[in-house]
Amino acid sequence: MSDIFDMRKKIAEVGKLMYARFLTDTAGGNLSVRMGDVILMTPRYAGSAFHWQLKPENILILDLEANKLEGEGQVSREVRVHRDLLTKFYPDGTAVVHGHSRNALVFCAVERPIPSMLYATDKFGPEIGLIPDAPAHSQELADSICAAIEPQLDRVRKQAAVVLAPRHGVFVFAKDLDSGFDALERVDVSAYCALMGRLLAS
User: How far apart are CA 130 and CA 127, in angstroms?
Assistant: First the structure.
């Protein structure tokens, strides 16, 4: 159980770091990690109610059908994405990082892919593509994300695969939590470079 406590603590710490670095916001985002037969996941309202100041006990312990076993808080409405990725493609990936990162959200809003502007993001492909538009929290969204991730499992085994959800945010499926956080920030920096580069070209 100490390993689970340590991971709950780490998930809370990564959530705080994401919020501090504008990689997510009070409107949403969530984190999850599979450990054996359980999924550890941030609770509903992690941003709007907790302001991402989560404690280990706020990180929920779920079974593989996303039923709550332990933890202080409600199950996130976005749990379908996390459950499906972590059951269909485990152990290729063990962590899901969903963020509303400030620069990448511009591309989500206008429904355009993020080009790889740096060597640091080439590993995720020449661009970060969009899935078809789907309602937040829906099974349709989960199905679309899984369909976009499945052809990229080689990237997940090395580090992570990343997709954009129109008007919603960034979803990362990664081999572990550190790799997922790293991928989210790299992609957001690439989005920033793409946006600012347009100013230099004008």
Answer: 10
20: buried, middle or exposed (CB in 10 Å: 19+, 13-18, 0-12)? exposed
Radius of gyration of the chain (CA): 16
Q: Label the pairing between strands 68-70 and 60-62.
A: antiparallel
Angle at 38 between CA 37 and CA 39, to 5 degrees: 135
Q: Please give the span between the terminal C-alpha atoms of the chain, in angstroms, as a whole number.
A: 56
CB 143 within 8 A of CB 131: no
What's the CA gap between 30 and 47, in Å, rounded?
Answer: 9
User: Which residues sit opposite 162 in a β-bridge?
Assistant: 172
For the stretch 94-116, pLDDT in tens is 999 999 999 999 999 999 999 99
Please identify which residue in the block is written with the tokens 């085994």.
157
Q: For 2-201, CATH number?
A: 3.40.225.10
Q: Please, is 65 exposed, middle or buried when counting C-beta atoms within 10 Å of its C-beta (0-12, 13-18, 19+)?
A: exposed
Q: Is the pTM of this model over 0.90?
A: yes
| DSSP line for 87-130 | HHSTTT--EEEEE--HHHHHHHHHT-PEE--SHHHHTT-SEE-B
Q: Which residues, 6 or more positions from 151, have their beta carbon under 8 angstroms from its beta carbon? A: none
* DSSP bridge pairs for 115: 127
pLDDT in tens, 55-81: 999 999 999 999 999 999 999 999 999
